[in-house]
Amino acid sequence: MNVTARSILLVAPLLLASCNGSGSGQKIVTNAMPLEVSTAFGTSGTVANMLYTTLTICDANSNCQTIDHIQVDTGSGGLRIFSQALTTVGLTQILSNGTPLAVCESFASGNAWGPVQTATVKLASEPAITIPVQMIDATFGAQSLPSPCNIGTWSSPMDIHANGILGIDVGRADSGVYFTCDANTCMESTSPSQRVTNPVLALPVDNNGVIINLPVIPDNGQATAYGELILGIDTTWNNDPKKYSAGNPIKTVKLDAFDPFFASTTAGTTGSTNKLSFSSFAVDSGSTAYFFSDSTIPFCSALSTAIGIGPYCPGNPKNFAVWVTGNDANLWNFQLWIRDATMLTATGNLAFNDLGANGGMPDFFIAGLPFFYGKQVYLGYATKSSTLGDGPLYGYALR
Amino acid sequence: MLPISAKEAEIPRTLPARSRVIQGVVLILLCASAAQAQLGQPVQGPAQRRESLHLEKSETRAANGYRYNVMSSDNLVVKEYIHPGTNAIFGVTWKGKRMPSLQALLGFDPYKISGPGVSRTLHTAQFGTDSLSVAIVAFKGRYEGRVVRIDLLPQGVSPSVVTP
């Protein structure tokens, strides 16, 4: 999409607001964050299906910095920013019992280690919120980092191809491991003074959930993709699900408050009676592909074939039907395509709705970013309610 | 994360690159053996191993062509799969509410593995070499992993028996 087209997309809500304005006042959009699937750090850092947003951080002295290429992640909670990305603001260290507080947050690709600091954060045009955030800084604290952050420690934005992570999950309990660190050692803290949590929960009004809205893209991908992250569900004039989905039905499923996965999943090649069962299904914008194990889909390489993990290259596209059951017994039934990963990546495009891989975990079906294209995906937060129901819940409507 | 470049999706089969990967894994595993006995090494007694991992319970279960130790505490379950002939550990899995110490569990650092068999995203990552398959899933409150030494599998035993 060229700059002009992107600009039209980004201002479209404002134009609509003008059209919707009644009487003397225009309705202003305050709760729409930009989303983009695009390059991060030049061609060397180019990775497909990375979903980014932009936000602003300020320190206690009102020095502010706008930071782009923050990865939007529905699988974690909290704002985490690499120290290298913060150049003009100095955040205030949070103490726990008089000692600097740090956190180790484990991801599959590595561990985020660093101090917990106070930041004033501006999401879209919402009121600024002052919250604990994690500064990702492998040099913080003791020379020998505590487990599990003693290995796989992220040290630069290139490690994850993002300047940070905006974790907006449905609100399960924080699972970071906290430490208090003096000059020589870090001790685990089971009751830290503060925790890093989803910033959306700290908003005064638009805090009961979010909507991720990404466009329909072609089968063989698109160079880039742009959309929006709407804060709140049915909290203001522009996020009433019925109006926002333009009348398309919204299918919701409830989750367990303590488990990030849906109740059950089956998937099968369309037209086949053979169905695969997966005990753990997750919707995850932080995963770049559909990850599931199906021994009938060819891999892209002999190495992957030998060890049973890696991208899928089916030759001819494969169509799957997926049935997902929520904790409320509601059912999702959606279609997906898996196309040849080698062919797709050779296009040079960055946005794909049909990348698939075997993640090596037979029980898991992870609906990564390909799932989000052409949909509005609703996340209703735990302990909150909306017209979609009590959270935690997921919903989607086709665009 | 899934790579954008075609060269990473298509695995290069040139001998030097492959040799470097194998060499790297051998070095990692040699370093591991100097530290603790884990994947690829003769198994320790379940009680000794349980204590070294700070777990509370352990038991050994028999299966067709192999046996496995199950060690657990409230927040973590670890399984070690054992070759009946060599007593070598050919598979390790974990499932828990927080990430365990992978260095202690596996005896090596999987994050140091590089090459065409590596794919990383935030919540699912794979680290593969010619003889080793490492799969990690990490969501808030749910951490699971599965590691298999393909070259150490007992005859007739499928890697699919190794499951968290």
Question: Can I get a quick summary?
Answer:
The complex is a heterodimer of chains A (399) and B (164). Chain A has 399 residues and is mostly beta strands.
Protein described:
- The complex is a heterodimer of chains A (399) and B (164).
- By secondary structure, chain A is mostly beta strands.
- Chain A folds into two domains: 51-202, Cathepsin D, subunit A, domain 1, CATH 2.40.70; 234-398, Beta Barrel (Cathepsin D, subunit A, domain 1).
- Chain A is built from five helices and 28 strands.
- Chain A has helices at residues 3-20, 241-244, 302-307, 341-346, 369-372; strands spanning 32-37, 51-58, 64-73, 77-82, 92-93, 95-96, 99-107, 110-122, 129-136, 164-168, 177-181, 186-189, 209-214, 225-231, 251-254, 264-269, 276-278, 280-283, 290-291, 310-311, 318-325, 331-338, 356-358, 364-367, 375-380, 385-386, 389-390, 393-398.
- The two termini of chain A are 18 Å apart.
- Residues 1-5 and 7-23 of chain A have low confidence and may be disordered.
- Chain B has one domain (6-153).
- Chain B has four helices and eight strands; from the N terminus they run αααββββαββββ.
- Chain B has helices at 6-9, 15-35, 46-52, 102-106, and strands spanning 57-63, 66-73, 76-82, 89-96, 118-120, 124-128, 132-139, 142-149.
- Chain B has an eight-stranded antiparallel sheet, with helices on one face.
- Chain B starts with 5 loop residues before the first helix and ends in a 15-residue tail after the last strand.
- Chains A and B meet through helix 3, strand 20 and helix 4 of A and helix 1, helix 4, strand 6, strand 7 and strand 8 of B.
